[in-house]
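F.,

This is the one I mentioned.
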């Protein structure tokens, strides 16, 4: 039920990011200016490799969400906590950007780089039902909750329990699936060099959502 509530809470913003991604996919195939702009992004990705992935993820996952947090939720007032949030997010998303890049490259090696239905389906299933529940979702939950607990060493004992996975990771997975299954379907339907640039586009909204979910959960009393 907690997972379904998380998924419902993300319906409207999730639909917005999905609509954006689908529009980009259609534009890439049928609107030459969109294709030209995306080809430039692909050229930058080819030139800079993992460095591009790290920088794109940092901009999308660290700077944009924190700027929006200050501008919208804090009404332009910068607080000391913003610098701590930014330092954490730069390190975390810089590493995760390279991890996602390596994972996408691995998927292309395992299943091929074609955008046919069979290949895209295999990549989506591995992405969302192996990589996500076994690595991305728990690691993200652990590290964000560790940060929100003041980097307390005592928090780690709770992270490595079934109760934590059930109560924290599973709801996050439902929220993730509701937003990201359509998004990664679009990503895997595009050329490999465009997957990370457009992943970064979708990431900005997701990090804003996930940060809000994580901070609200940390404010509730733990039974």
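My design for it:
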């Amino acid at each position: 039920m907690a997972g379904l509530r998380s998924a419902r809470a993300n319906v409207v913003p999730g639909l917005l990011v999905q609509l954006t991604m689908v529009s980009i996919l259609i534009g890439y195939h049928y609107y030459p200016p969109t294709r030209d702009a995306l080809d430039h992004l692909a050229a930058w990705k080819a030139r800079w490799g993992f460095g591009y992935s790290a920088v794109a993820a940092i901009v999308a996952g660290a700077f944009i969400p924190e700027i929006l947090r200050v501008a919208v939720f804090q009404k332009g007032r910068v607080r000391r906590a913003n610098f701590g949030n930014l330092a954490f997010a730069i390190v975390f998303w810089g590493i995760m950007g390279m991890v996602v890049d390596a994972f996408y490259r691995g998927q292309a090696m395992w299943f091929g780089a074609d955008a046919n239905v069979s290949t895209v389906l295999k990549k989506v299933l591995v992405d969302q039902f192996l990589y996500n529940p076994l690595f991305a979702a728990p690691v993200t939950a652990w590290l964000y909750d560790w940060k929100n607990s003041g980097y307390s060493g005592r928090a780690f004992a709770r992270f490595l329990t079934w109760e934590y996975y059930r109560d924290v990771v599973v709801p996050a997975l439902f929220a993730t699936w509701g937003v990201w299954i359509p998004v990664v379907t679009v990503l895997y339907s595009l050329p490999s060099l465009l997957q990370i640039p457009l992943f970064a586009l979708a990431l900005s909204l997701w990090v804003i959502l996930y940060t809000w979910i994580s901070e609200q959960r940390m404010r509730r009393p733990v039974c």
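The radius of gyration is 18 Å.

Talk soon.
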